[in-house]
Structures are given as C-alpha cells and as structure tokens.
Amino acid sequence: MNRLLLNKIILMLSTLSAIIGISFLFWILATLTYKGVSSIHLSTFSQDLVNGGIRNLLVGQFTMAIIASLIAVPLGMFAGIWLREYSNGSKLASIIRNLSDVMMSAPSIVIGVFVYALFVVPFGGYNGFAGIIALAIMMIPIIISTTDNMLALVPKELREAGVALGGSKHKIILQIVIKAAKVGITTGVLLSFARIIGETAPLLFTSANSQFFTMDLTEQFPSLTVSIYNLATYPDEASRELAWSASFILTAIVLIINLTGRYMTRNKK
Amino acid sequence: MGGRLFKNFSFFSATLSFFILIGIFSILFTYAQDSIHQFGFDFLSSEIWEADEDDEDIGIFGGFIPIVGTMLSTTIAMIIATPLAMGIAIFLTEIAHKTLIKPVSIAIELLAAIPSIIYGMWGLFYFAPIIQSTFGGQGVGLLTAGIVLAIMIIPFMAAITRDSMNTVPDVLKESAYAMGATKFEVIKDVVMPYSKGGIIGSIILALGRALGETMAVAFLIGSVMQIPSKITDPTTSIPVLLANNFSEAQGLEMSSMYYLALILFIVSFIIISVAKFYFLGKKVK
Q: Does residue B37 lie in a domain region?
C-alpha cells in the first residue's frame, strides 16, 4: 500500500502548493487594502506630491504609459503583421521572431541603462521622453508576439475570400484579418499596458521623478512607481502612509486593467 | 501605392526589435569600454568597489559581490519556487475539480500581474519582520529577497509548466490508469516525461526573470556591498546596485556600472535563448 500512500502525499503537497500560492495573493491584497484604504484622503487625489498627494504622479504615470502605448502598439502591430502576413516564413522572420521573444524577457533595469545612455546623457538630464521610450521598448515585443499569435489564429479561408473579392493585400489585412483578430489583440494591448504602467526599474534614471505637476516631457517627469520607491524609504510616517495609498491605487489599476483584458477573451473560448 | 507603403512600414517595424537589441548590446559595450579595458575579466572576481579619494573619476571596481549576490538570491528563489510551481501546475492539470481550475488559474495569474515594487513594499514591511523573528538577522537580506523573489516567479513558472502539461494526450494517461497506475505514477511516468522540455524551459525562463528582477530585491536584499557569511546577511545584486547607484556614479565607476549591466544582459540573453529555443521550441509554426 506504499504507493497509494505516496500518491496521497504527493497529491496533498500539490494542493498545498496551490493553497500557498493563493494565500500569498490574498495576503498581499489584504495588506494593501488595509494599509492603503486607511491612509487615502480626498487630498491624496487633489494634491501633488509636494503637498502630500499623488495627483501629479497618477497623471505622470498614465501620460508616460499612454504615449508609450501610442508608439509601441502601432509599431508592434505592424511588425506582427509583417511576420505573419508578408514574411512567407522566411529565415529573417524567424530570426526577428526569436529576438523579439528574447527582448520580452530582457531585464528592465538594463533597458533603463540603455535609454539613459541614449536619451538622458545627450540631453543633459532626466526627461519624460526617455521614460516613454524605455516603456515603449518594453511593450513592443509583447505587442509583436500577441499580434503574431492572434493573426495565426485567423483562418486562411477568410484571407482567400478577400482575395476572391478582388481586395488588395493590405486592404484584406486591415479590413478582414485585423478585424477577425481584434479581440485577441486588444486583450494583448491591455495586458501589456497593465504591465508597463506598474514598471519602476526602467523609469528610475530615465524620467526619474518630480514633486510637481508638469506636462513638460523635456523635464524630469512625475512617476507613481518611482515615488513609491522613494517614499517607502523615508523615515516619517506620513511618507510611508502615502506610499501605501499609492501602492494600493497602483495595484487596483493594474489588476482592473488586467481583469478587463481577460474578461474580453473569456467569451471567445 | 498604399499597399507598398504599408508593406514597407511593416517591414521597418519588424526589423526594429532587431536594431533595439543590437543597440542595447553596442551601447552597453561602448560605455563599458573604460572599465573592460582597465579591469578585463578580473572584474568578475574582484571584491573591491572603491572610488579614489582624491579623484572620483578613477578607482578600483570589481563586480564579484553583486554577481555573487545575484546568483545566491536567484538560487534561493529557484530552490523554493520550483517545487511549489510544479505542485501548482500538477494541481491545475491533474487534481483540481473543473469548477476550481478557472478561479485558481486567475488567482495565480493575478499574482504574476502585481507590479514588483508592490512585492517590495509588502516584503519590506510585512515579510521581512517575520523572517527576522524566525531566522534572526536584520530582516532584510539574502533570505528575504530570495523568498519574495520565489513568490514572484512561481506564477510565471507554474503557468508555462501547466500549459505544457496540458499538451499531454489524454489517451496516454488513460492507458496508464488502465494499467492500475496511481495518479502520482501517471504524473511521474507519463506527464512529466512527456512535458519534460516545457518544464525545464519554464524553470530556466523563470531563472532569467529572477536574475534581472530589480525593484522587489532592491527593497529586500539590504543593498550592502559585502559577501554574505550567513543566509540572512544583507548583500547586493547587479540590478539593485544599478538601481541605487547608477545615477550618482561617474567616470570609471559609471563605466563599471555599464560593465555590470552588460554582464547581466548577456547572461539573461543566453539563459532566455536556451530556454526558449532549446527547451520550449517555437510556439508558432
């Protein structure tokens, strides 16, 4: 009966692993809610960091993430379209696909260092543009891979139907193929947006941070995540409380965007 | 006409990730030149990291401490994460009731979506004190960083392992059950061998993630330039040293920072490539 016992033990340990994993999720979420909600006041949203609020940080973080998406989504989608629709499975396509896959897991701090050398040093200081470029570099490979994979799911017959109707290749891609893959690509965009909006490492020495409300991308730019890192290390209670509220709000934003993305594809499967 | 423009722009976008990768490599290499020239491969084994007292632009810099710190914290994370991630993947593919699979999968994926800075905050204020009262030390240090790093990579590893375990044909498992095999025997002798490539790939990929993880470790490893003598001792890692000291460095120290970034980038590149192309194969045909 030894093997039956062993079987039981292993199955119990596996179940236990799942319980441990989920407990950590709830532990972290509970901590954030408990510490975050109790320190949120109306002024948290109406004031800038210099006055103990996070208004400028939220605006700054969203501004950078949105502009980064405006750069990364078209570029990534076009790249994915080329890989799937134009490359005809060439050697070059497989090299690009592999490199972009590797880029997806590149350490984000290294991307920060790279952008620092290229867009901070020559311009004489931290600036919002550099932060945007760092985020865009993180996002492009994710969009490429999503587009590539989603276009692969579109049945060949749809493209053939387009050809039979006399459509030119780019019209077929734009009006038929992309439409068919719309939901999947949108989900990919939302998930990657949720990822870059929570990034800290690539912003540390690109956009850095600012205490004040600004929309000037040529200057240091306010960042929610970088502020959390700074605030958490200050010894005073007020800074820590603000760090907790900011963490709670950031996590809520990330998880809501993430769940929205997942919900969209839920009905498809 | 529009068609040609469309095609050319697609091609341009596709080559972009190639140029970014080449760009990162050459920029890091160029800026690291001074340090590479000065210290060569001894950089990897030298423990001293000191700017000259009179001239901040020069000094002696060696990467041994952050390199060892990175390896140790990653090792601890892998030792803890691997069995737990395997357990979760087995639970999701072989044990869980149909109604449980979805919510558990979503919970695990949300765990992966939480930004790393949040793990750092939570780890510093809630987890470090527990480690301190259980194992002694100062709270922050190798062990704390390693455990929180493990929690961060578990969902990632579990998801890929689950996907590859899901590819095992039911008929193979059913045949084994028909021979009287227990669930564990089916997992050990059918599922694991069949999805071996995917499992090893997921472990190596998670290793690549852990090596480059910055923010959570920055909160938790203690950021002290020393070789740890105990597992609870604070030390530093390559990403953490970069995060904390990169922007203030100058001259040769700055160049040495680029050298460290280059080392991290090359090691990650190799690890991720091995995982993706040797073990996980190409996902899309």
A: no
Of the partner residues A21, A102, A194, the one whose CB lies closest to the CB of residue B273:
A102
* Model confidence band, residue B284 (pLDDT cutoffs 50, 70, 90): very low
Chain B residue numbers with beta carbons less than 8 Å from the beta carbon of A15 are 87, 91, 95
Could you report the per-residue pLDDT of A125-151, keeping only the tens digit for each? Answer: 999 999 999 999 999 999 999 999 999
Mutate to test the interface with B, among A20, A38, A82, A239 (most CBs of B within 10 A): A82
| Closest alpha carbon to B87 in B162, B153, B195 | B162
* Residues of B whose CB is below 8 A from A255: 110, 113-114
Distance from CA of A163 to the nearest CA of B (A): 14
Q: Please give the pLDDT value at position B137.
A: 86
Q: Cβ–Cβ of B277/A98 closer than 8 Å?
A: yes
CATH of the domain at B91: 1.10.3720.10
pLDDT tens figures, B203-230: 999 999 999 999 999 999 999 999 999 9
What ipTM does this complex have?
Answer: 0.92
Range of the domain at A87: 42-266
Give a yes or no: residue B101 inside a domain: yes
Min Cα distance B128 → chain A (Å) is 13
Q: What does the pLDDT read at residue B285?
A: 34
Please check whether residue B129 lies inside any domain of the structure.
Answer: yes
Interhelix angle B142-165/B98-113, rounded to 10 degrees, is: 140
Position B248 in a domain: no
φ, ψ for residue B179, nearest 5 deg: -80, 0
Q: What is the DSSP string of A170-222?
A: HHHIIIIIHHHTHHHHHHHHHHHHHHHHT--GGGTTTT---SS----TTS---
Q: Distance between CA A95 and CA A90 in Å, rounded?
A: 9
A254 touches chain B (CB under 8 A): yes
Number of domains, chain A: 2
Domain span holding position B127: 73-240+273-279
To the nearest whole Å, the CA of B230 is away from the closest chain A CA by 25
Q: Answer yes or no: do B182 and A7 touch at CB < 8 A.
A: yes
- Min Cα distance A57 → chain B (Å) is 15
